[in-house]
Amino acid sequence: MAFDGYFISKLVNEIKPKILNKRVDKVFQDENYLQFKLQREYLTFTISGQMGMFYLSDDSINNLDYEFAKVLRKNLLGYRLRSINQVSLDRIVIFEFEGIDLIKGPVKRKLILEAYGRNFNLILTEANDIIISAYRLIHNLENKTILPNVKYEIDESDKLLLENNSTLHLDYEEIKNKYLGVSPLLGKYLQSKHINLDEIKINPVKNFDNNQFYWFNLFETENVKVYDSLSSLIGDLRVSKKVNKKPYEKFIKNESVKLQNKLIKLADDLKKHESNILLKNIADRIYSSALDLNTKASNFEGVTLDVNLTLNENAQKFYSQYKKAKSGLDYAQNEIEKTTLRLEVFDDLKETLEYLDSEEELKDFAEALTDYGYKLKTFKRKRKDEPNITKIDYLGSTILVGKNSKQNEYIFSKLAKNDDMWLHVKAGTGAHVIIKGEHTPKIIEKAAQYAAFYSSYKHSSNIPVDYTLVRYVTKVRKSETFKTTYTNYKTIYINEVSMEILTNH
Questions:
Q1: DSSP string, 291-315
Q2: What pLDDT is stored for residue 385 in this prediction?
Q3: Of 404, 378, 463, which is closest to residue 428 (Cα–Cα)?
Q4: Contact call for residues 352 and 369 (beta carbons, < 8 A)
Q5: Sign of CA dihedral 165, 88, 186, 464
Q6: Which region holds residue 144: left if phi is over 0, alpha if psi is between -120 and 50, else beta?
Q7: Burial of 296 (0-12, 13-18, 19+ CB in 10 A)
Q8: CA–CA dist 486, 488 (Å, integer)
Q9: What is the pLDDT of residues 325-380, one digit of tens each?
């Protein structure tokens, strides 16, 4: 997907002349779309799958009478769409409506689209007060709660605009991290091109090789479809069913916060123990000072003493604190190491969850999550010795895909042999993939597609996947999740992947 700031800018310019100043006659909503009938035009928003996209469609959708649509009807029916403005080149678009309220008189209300993929939201406001949002309990990118009667503030990005749209001397990381409105797809293209984006003509294209699309043809393939408008391109995209990841996201976040707080406490304990270790030296000096050990004092060599205790009792107290600190120091250091490793586990789990898109994958993920305290509620946990491994028969070989740590370890430790081929994305979180049988270049490419698809690089392009024989792969022993190191490997680069590409065999 490449619904970035530049794409949105072109789309706004395309639809503006067709719907500005038109009246809202109807509002429809189903599980995938929200739609406004503006006289004879249908302004449609995708609210499932590739969320946040908007376009002009030819037909109306069925209305399932959702609460969000009811409130929009109450507040916008009969109003006219007066302006559509994108915030800089960000993925925020403001639709401003103007109408007459029977009590307030002339009123302006805004429907604000935050087109941030899974962080998508549609927010209706009046005088910057939130009336309703499509997703009430989510947080936007700056962690500000989106709730009714709360002031809405735009989270403007601190990224820069490309100067004169020139990309000379810029590398991919700089383009991606510093400049606004640039998707990874466009960033990869700009990395090797010196172009002015303002001079490129709109030519909407969909790439059938990987299901990617953009407002001009930047694909190095002839297997594309050209559209006469951006709206017709978006309307041709398939909406996939939205899956609910919130319970798992909440669990991972809560556990991570607990571990972070534990590390803070352990660091304080460690500092205290390191300080108390030095008390032995003070006690030794008290005994070697030739002072009367039965006397009481408030200070010894600048160290504060307990005036209710003798020098001997203070020294014994310091020895006792030293012994506790010595054992406590070892304990704190071990706990810090264990807690840090466990926090890394939850960081990996968070990344893994990002690229899971189906209910079946989430069930497997939830099963693996039970090892870290998550409680299953809606389905029975599988037996530990029966992980749900994905198996693909391809050109006479079998490709095994592990989609979580437990499955990865199972296929590597139980199913793989030394002469099988092993694959994994380079320097990223993702599935471990095994090829059993022949591993010709074509079979390796297909297996690498699976490794790329089930990885944190899923939505990138030119994804590096390393492959080597299982004999050259070694499990990292001091790790709570299944991790490996490997040698004698080669790297294959996979373009953007989709489920259609994976199953095309």
A1: --TTSB-SEETTEE--TTSBHHHHH
A2: 56
A3: 463
A4: no
A5: positive
A6: beta
A7: middle
A8: 7
A9: 999 999 999 999 999 989 888 888 887 887 676 677 788 888 888 888 898 865 44
Cα dist from 481 to 351, 395, 408, 486, whole Å: 13, 32, 9, 16
Query: Considering just the CA atoms, what is the radius of gyration of the chain in Å?
Result: 30
What distances in angstroms separate CA 11 from CA 8, 55, 215, 272, 438, one per listed residue? Answer: 5, 8, 9, 60, 48
Q: How far apart, in whole angstroms, are the C-alpha atoms of residue 497 and residue 489?
A: 22
Q: What is the mean pLDDT of residues 187-196?
A: 77
Sort residue 127 into left (φ over 0), alpha (ψ -120 to 50) or beta.
left
pLDDT at 384 over 70: no
Question: Hey, what are 361's tokens?
Answer: 């994958």
DSSP string, 250-263: HHHHHHHHHHHHHH
Q: For residue 362, give the nearest of 397, 321, 311, 403 by alpha carbon.
A: 403
Residue 194 C-beta-side C-alpha neighbours within 13 Å: 2
The rounded distance, in Å, linking the Cα atoms of 455 and 502 is 14
Strands across the sheet containing 432-436: 390-394, 397-402, 432-436, 421-425, 463-469, 490-494
Sequence-distant (≥ 6) Cβ neighbours of residue 67 within 8 angstroms:
none
Distance, CA of 373 to CA of 249 (rounded, Å)? 14
pLDDT band at 263 (very low <50, low <70, confident <90, very high): very high
Give tens-digit pLDDT for 116-166: 876 788 999 999 999 998 876 444 444 556 667 788 888 777 788 876 655
DSSP-assigned letter for residue 288: T
First-to-last alpha carbon distance for the chain, in angstroms, is 23
Tell me the helices (H) and strands (E) count for the chain, helix number first.
12, 22
d(CA 86, CA 92): 6
Please state, in angstroms and rounded to a whole number, the distance separating the CA atoms of residues 87 and 393.
48
Structure tokens belonging to residue 415: 């199913």
Q: How far is CA 174 from the centre of its chain?
A: 20
Phi, psi of 55 (to 5 degrees): -170, 170
Half-sphere exposure of 233 (CA within 13 A, CB side): 30
Neighbours of 366 (CB within 10 A): 20
Instruction: State the chain's maximal CA–CA distance in angstroms.
Output: 102
**What is the number of other CB atoms lying within 10 angstroms of the CB of residue 356?**
20
Distances (CA, A) of 94 to 125, 263, 305, 492: 10, 43, 68, 43
Contact between residue 85 and residue 94 where contact means Cβ atoms under 8 Å apart = yes
